[in-house]
Amino acid sequence: MPLRLQLRYANKPAQNHVLFEGKEYLLGRSDDCDIVLDDPSVSRYHARISARNGVWQLQDHNSQNGCFQNGQRVNSIALARLADVTLGPVQCRMELVEHRQITAESSFRQWRQRYLNAAAENMLRETSLNNLLQNASDTLTTILSSDRAAVIFLDAQGDISHCSGYPEWLGGQTFSGSRTAIQHAVDSQEPVVLAAVHNHAELAQAASIIKNHIQALLVFPVIVGHDVVAVLYADSQAEHRAFLDTDLAIVRSFSRQLSMALQIQDIEVRLQQLQVS
């Protein structure tokens, strides 16, 4: 049975890999590894994973910072159907999956891209700003398969001025997401995507993260001109939910499309004002 390996880093999205029986996989920092772990604390050749007689096994490759399970350093272990192992500082979740599940997940990724393409065309044609925002929030919820997702607009000071999407966030005062993560994305004009928030040195200590039990989050700035006018926000309070590099890629594409649609809306408003005057 195939094995899904999910790599969870402290400061970037998770990565999924599917491993198949009949091949030995070398994990490490070196580019010639079968699965590259992008962290300086991981050894160049850190560990090996292979299936023997239908049982997946992990073996340490004399790594400097070791392999750990349940806080104990291990040299060789047989992996259960669901196993959490740490290679250096990188959290690895390993899970046996059926072939049909792999096929279904691949089909979903293809469908998601088609859905986004169709939604982007609709956004570019939309003449009502309210409808545009509702369509954008619906699209974000769908492509991330997340209930706690919203398009959040900011005022000149970078505070939440309007929220379209997750109903409980429609009033800025009741927002139960991470304002700290939003501020990071606004200040840097770069996305903040964390698969395991508790591993992030700064955000793990943020009051909003602790109070609202946020386990994973994604914040992507929507830039019009040179300014961040909104963020695409999603988080999860579920312990094992992680946002992936594939989620980041599709949200990046969606952000570009939404930015374009907002610019078209702004141009149309200005043209209407010129006609009135």
TrEMBL record:
Residues 25-74 form the FHA domain. CDD domains: FHA (cd00060). It holds the Pfam family GAF. It comes from the Bacteria. InterPro entries: Cell_Proc_Reg/RNA_Proc, FHA_dom, GAF, GAF-like_dom_sf, SMAD_FHA_dom_sf. Signal peptide: none annotated. PANTHER family: NUCLEAR INHIBITOR OF PROTEIN PHOSPHATASE-1. This is FHA domain-containing protein. It comes from Aliidiomarina haloalkalitolerans.
